[in-house]
Amino acid sequence: MTLDVDPPSPPELSPNVDPNEYDDADVVGDSDYRREELGAFLAEGAWEEAFAAWAAETQVTAEEWDIVTDLGLGSDFDFFWDDFAGRVGYHAPGLPQDWKEREVHPELNSWKQVSSINAGLTELGQTACDVLKDDYIDWESEYEAPDDLPDF
Question: InterPro entries, per this entry (predicted)?
Fold first, then answer.
């Protein structure tokens, strides 16, 4: 299924966010998260490329994307360089578990919609990471494993 909508603005990455503080983060150690460079890549076209690739394959419907847009979640992502793993990490926005009690959006009326939106945003984040890593990033990880690691 193809989602035929305009991409949201590229995320604006804050240099003051520590990805280790996310509940789902698996970032090791301190790092130069290279947010300025990643933000520039996203603004220079990586975000639009990722969005186009994602929209061509996503299961998110136009009605669900309207909810995402209304809530301003479309560009509320965080991306960072994980030097230890040599990868782009990300944190995707999502709808809360108590969406119904909080009356998050008047058109949001089922767990199926919530799951579709949350999964879709996660997939968009991963697609953006892949585009950044494959097509934009040309730096190497600076992390080197200690020489005294045991052989397994």
Answer: DUF7992
